[in-house]
Design goal:
It is a single chain. The chain is mainly beta and about 180 residues long. It has one domain (about 35-170): OB fold (Dihydrolipoamide Acetyltransferase, E2P), CATH 2.40.50.140. About 5% of the residues lie in helices and about 35% in strands. It has 1 helix and 7 strands. It has one helix spanning about 90-95, and strands spanning about 35-40, 45-50, 55-70, 75-85, 100-115, 120-135, 165-170. A 5-stranded mixed beta barrel has the order 1-3-4-6-5. The longest helix is centred in the middle third of the chain and has 9 residues, at about 90-95. The two termini are about 45 Å apart.
Length: about 180
């Protein structure tokens, strides 16, 4: 039985208007920029507005990682990430979140550059939040959840007690859709 022969084809992309003619199809790489983080806020969110009056909130998240080293000792590592959110979601984060509260964010990584006051060029990565979900919140004596996420005394917060926190951003799948038969 003969081993299959792998043939490397050169594809001309000039007819499609994509890329250069004669470019190797195998050398093309797909791009994917998605970040999902679950952590605690490192500071209270800072709400500001763009000149177009679009709300913008900046906050930091800290994520902890624990592992056992080769020598058997327990190790801890904390990663700090700056995040930014726009629009109505920004106002919601500002209203219901505060330092130390857990938050699940989903977004994409952006690279910001600017000129510092001393004339040096500065840059940093930041997560631009597209969706987020409140998590945790603790339990109160009356059995209600969501403590610390706004609301008044005796109020269970943004969502009914005993139910999952609402997910912000994006659309919710319709009831009876393909996600209803997931076994977990």
């Amino acid at each position: 039985m003969r081993a299959p022969v792998r043939v490397k084809r050169r594809v001309s992309l000039s007819r499609t208007g994509i890329g250069e003619a004669g470019k190797d199809k195998e050398s093309e790489m797909a791009n994917f920029n998605k970040v999902i983080l679950l952590g605690n806020l490192t500071r209270d969110p800072q709400l500001s507005y763009l000149p177009s009056q679009t709300p913008v909130v900046d906050f930091g998240l800290a994520m902890n990682r624990k592992w056992t080293g080769q020598d058997g000792s327990q190790r801890d590592e904390t990663c700090f990430v700056d995040c930014r959110c726009f629009g109505r979601q920004a106002e919601t984060i500002n209203k219901y979140c505060s330092k130390g509260k857990p938050l699940l964010v989903e977004g994409h990584l952006t690279f910001d550059t600017w000129q510092a006051q001393d004339g040096s060029k500065r840059s940093k990565h930041r997560v631009t939040v597209e969706r987020f979900t409140f998590v945790g919140g603790g339990q109160r004596a009356d059995g209600g959840g969501r403590e610390g996420y706004g609301g008044q005394e005796g109020d269970s917060g943004p969502g009914p007690a005993g139910q999952a926190a609402p997910e912000m951003g994006g659309e919710q799948p319709p009831a009876g859709g393909p996600g209803d038969d997931v076994p977990f």
